Amino acid sequence: MRVVIAEDSVLLRTGVQRLLEDEGIEVVAAVEDGAALLDAVREHRPDLALVDVRMPPTFTDEGLRAAIEARRLVPGLPVLVLSQYVEERYAVDLLVGGASGVGYLLKERVADVAEFVASVRRVAEGGTSIDHEVITQLMVRSKRDPLDSLTPREREVLGLMAQGLSNTAIAAEMTVSDGAVEKHVGNIFSKLGLEPSTAEHRRVRAVLTYLGRT
Question: Does the UniProt entry include the keyword Phosphoprotein (predicted)?
């Protein structure tokens, strides 16, 4: 796996690079701002871009905007955002802008090395990894809930899907059979009006509906 890191803090950038390399993940570029991220993405076409939200020159949302642009430059580029904050506007743009390979974690999660590396691999493979706090804040921003038709059990399954868990992992978490989870997932797709499609990943669309609630 080949990764580009965009993080303005030298200590964190170096630390994350060392952590990934210790896990056998190649870091092809480690940069400090959004412009350099886009240059690195163009040059290396990495398997994943690991991006901070707030970078020079204004330290507001340059990282997220660069991540969105990077996915335009390389359609389908997996992007994992690391931040101390939940930037709601651009977080939704990033999540809705692609059908797979997106993640948004708070920086405190890096402290759990196993969890962080698992998230990196999951997103690089086209999955999702969304922090609990990010989910909570994005849900609060919505004025209406399109998920009212779901049962509490189906909502629980969808919440675990949003965390990036597979059906098997959800079954283990809920102490139910794989078949029961598959039935819940099928009901979720049906109630959210997500028909089978070769152009979209229904699982990711369901998660995005859960996050955006729009």
Answer: yes
